[in-house]
Every structure is written in structure tokens, then in C-alpha cells.
Amino acid sequence: MQIAVFGRTINDGRTEHIKSLYKSLSAHNANMLIFEPFYKITKELLPAESRVQIFNTHQELIQNASCMLTIGGDGTLLEAITYIRNSNLPVLGINTGRLGFLSGFSKEEIDLAVNMAVNLNFTIEKRTLLQIETNQSYFGETPFALNEVTFHKKDSSSMIILHVSINGMRLNSYWADGLIISTPTGSTGYSLSCGGPIIMPESDSFVLTPIAPHNLNVRPLVIADNNNLSITAEIRGRNFLVSLDSRSAALPAQEQIAIKKAPFTISLGRKPEQSFLQTLREKLMWGQDKRN
Q1: Of the candidates 38, 137, 122, 23, which has an alpha carbon nearest to the alpha carbon of residue 79?
Q2: 255-274, pLDDT tens digit by residue?
């Protein structure tokens, strides 16, 4: 059994969690396939008996791993997706960050996560992604996002105007600081903080959420995920920003961008007893009121 391990940095207080992860994997006699930049900063934490290989690319990962464990926050898991891509490799997130909607295991559940990964004894949730198409390859081999595609103004305090069409039919021209196109997975992220709705993971939909719109009657819109979006930007400067989860690129004005459902999904590993509704209650503290 080869278990991939993906992380980004070591922050204060997280060294012990990484050491616990490596110790647990070694105790389960698992072969580790560690992301090389993470290996370089954590190799001193590995037990002497550890069996370790490293990976740097998508191809090295999918050729050797049966499952992936990420350790960090949701941002770490989102970055790991750029290496997993369309391989259908299951990924289990261990949350040592803050909220952790995507990472289904707490730092107190490291042994449980390892045991489930080694034995492939977990529930898989298939999550939809967004994919963009542009005239140039701004995002290389990873033009997709698990959470959201976001349009931002750049180098100007003026609003950006985003002309949006759905399946060739004009929807609206958004005068705003930006626009978020979110998957159900991303509905609990940036979109939620801008007033967007929470969407159940199996809802087969996307949500368009404006960021500080100039027209106050413009509200988030939920659409079926089989629709194709076309977006062009009107700006005062030369460029605007497009972000795929945490990855951003500056695009020239009048660049036309197509957005649609990606042709593959991501397999998130969860505890069998864990549900999305339970996650909402725990992470958003629904029902946790002193009066109840």
C-alpha cells in the first residue's frame, strides 16, 4: 500500500501533528509517497524505519499512490487537487488549519485517517469541478477549480463590468468589484461570505455571486451545472484577475472566457458516519445556542 502525503508548510504548533502522521503511517507499514517540497522541510520528523519515495508531478503521483492524505487546511487540499486532476485518486484531508470544510478529519483523528487510508475503508464523495477555456493557456494543465472561479478588478479602484451569457443568451452585466462562480463545494467558502447560498454537494448546480455589486437588486443566482457560461470583462485598466481556487492570473481586457462543468470529479474520502449536514452543524455551529 502506497500512501501519498501532501503538505505545504510547517506552522507553529503543527510539527507534532506531522510527526504523528509519519509515525502512524510507519506503524501501519505503509509506503509513503511524499510531495518533495514538503519532504525537504519535514524529513527530520520521519521515523528511522520509514519507507519513503517522493513525487513532484501528476504522473509520478498517480503511477504510485493508492490514496492521498493531505495535512494542513482546506487550501492545502485545494492545491493537492492540481496534482490529482482526473486520476480519481481518493484524497483524505487532515485539518490542522481553521474551519476545514473539505478536510474531513481533525488533528485528533490522525490515526483514524491513516487506518482508513491504509485499509481503503472510507466513504467517497464525488465533487464537481469548474473548468475554464480561454484563447491562451493561462493556467497550463490545470484550468479547473474545485471551489470557485472568481473575477476581480486589478490595479484600479473602479468597478469591473462583467458581461455574462448562459448558453449564448445574455444574462446580465455585473457592475461590481467582481463575480464568483461557485460549485456546491465552494458554496461554503468565498461565495458564502459574499451572501451566496449554501448548496448541498449533490445538487448538480452552480451559483453566481457578485462581489459588492453596484446595483443592490442584483442577487446570487443558482443555475444547473449543465449550462455553459461566457464572460467578458470591461475595465479601465489593461488587465483583470481570474482566480481558480487560490491560483490567479492576469488576463487582458476583452478576453472571452468560457466556463463549464469539468469532465471529471474529485473523490473526497470521509468517515462513513460523517454527513454534509453534520459538517454544517459542527463548522457553522448551527443549533449551538445556550438557550437550546
Answers
A1: 38
A2: 899 999 999 999 999 998 88
pLDDT tens digits for 107-126?
999 999 999 999 999 999 99
Into which CATH architecture does domain 2-122+271-284 fall? 3-Layer(aba) Sandwich (3.40)
| Other Cβ atoms closer than 10 A to 35 | 23
Domain locations in the chain as residue ranges: 2-122+271-284, 129-264
Residue of 74, 111, 177, 245 marked active site = 74
Joined together, the cell numbers standing for residue 200 give 448541498
The percent of the chain in helix, strand and coil, each rounded to the nearest 5, is 25, 35, 40
Which residues partner with 277 through β-bridges? none
**Contact call for residues 209 and 194 (beta carbons, < 8 A):** yes
Would strands 229-234 and 67-72 be described as parallel, antiparallel, or unpaired? unpaired
What ranges in 100-214 are assigned the alpha helix state H? Answer: 110-119, 190-193
Position 12 confidence tier, pLDDT thresholds 50, 70, 90: low
* DSSP category for residue 246: T
Answer yes or no: are the C-beta atoms of 164 and 157 closer than 8 Å.
no
Decide: helix, strand or coil at residue 86.
coil
Is 74 one of the catalytic residues? Answer: yes
- Sign of the C-alpha dihedral computed for residues 166, 172, 174 and 180 taken in this order: negative
The CATH number of domain 129-264 is 2.60.120.10: no
